[in-house]
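Aim 2, interim progress: modelling of the zinc ion-bound target.
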Amino acid sequence: MYKASSQILLPTSIIGSLPRPAWHTVSLGKRSFLEAMVNARWREQYEDAVSTHLRAQEIAGLDICTDGDAHYDEAILPELLAVAVTDDYYKDPVERCWAFSEALNQELNALADAGCPVIQLEEPQIHMVPARGKPFGRLEAADLVKLFNNTVKGLRQKTEVWCHTCWGNPAQQRIFRDIQSYQPTLAALNEVDADAITFETCSSGTGDLEAIGKTIVDKKVVVGVIDHHTLQIERADQVAELLREALHHIPPERLVISSDCGMGREGMSRRHAQYKMVAMVLGTNIVRQELGIAEAECLAADPRYSLASRAP
Ligand SMILES: [Zn+2]
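Predicted structure of the complex, ligand included:
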């Protein structure tokens, strides 16, 4: 169900992570989240990191703020895999995927039950199948859709679900020499049990927008207007130009504005991510003004609050 993005036209948000503060040094290790929250040092760093991420998004003027993936440190995924679905127990990698999907589903339902207004989940690389082949040599795009839908089962009755797709950024590099297209798997992506699907449309260009608009007709479409590979900050007018193009194919009632992917895990600084979020809001404000929609307040771009400029 639409929750976080309901009642807002052209809402702005980010997908994935924000850069981890340099002082956030404690990791979960083998502890569960609840065990770690009992430790004063871990709890203080985690809570302060979430607070920092939220404040950065608030002063940029984003409509839907996230925890910036503060819960997701370097150790959590291997540990989860080790604890929840051990190699010894599940020899078969596909069985392991399904067991992991079940474990995640329980956690995500607990999150929705606690009142979380939006849950964004990376899809299991459905769109990568044509480019990289079938995972484990045997999972078709349709199998990966089933896996995603199992992971989110029960969620949409309680909260808004976003399906995150992107073309990756290991060490802020492209995975592929050439820009890849979503088009071969758009029909499969349309089958995911989600309220919104995100598409990388800044870094990899806008070539798929027409096909996306024709195929994804009953879900919200989240377009990336911020490149997660580059440190050069997008200009507001560049963001606005991309949005005008997107609006040729997707009606404003179903268009959501975001980053192409997470900005936090592969080398970008907090300052770059902050400026990029500000550019996203200022660019969206240009288009909002053109459409007669109320603009978002962007405190970060207000010279009255600048710590660096001289008072007039
Ligand atoms: Zn991503």
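Strands lie at 118-122, 160-164, 196-199, 220-224, 255-258. The mean pLDDT is 92.
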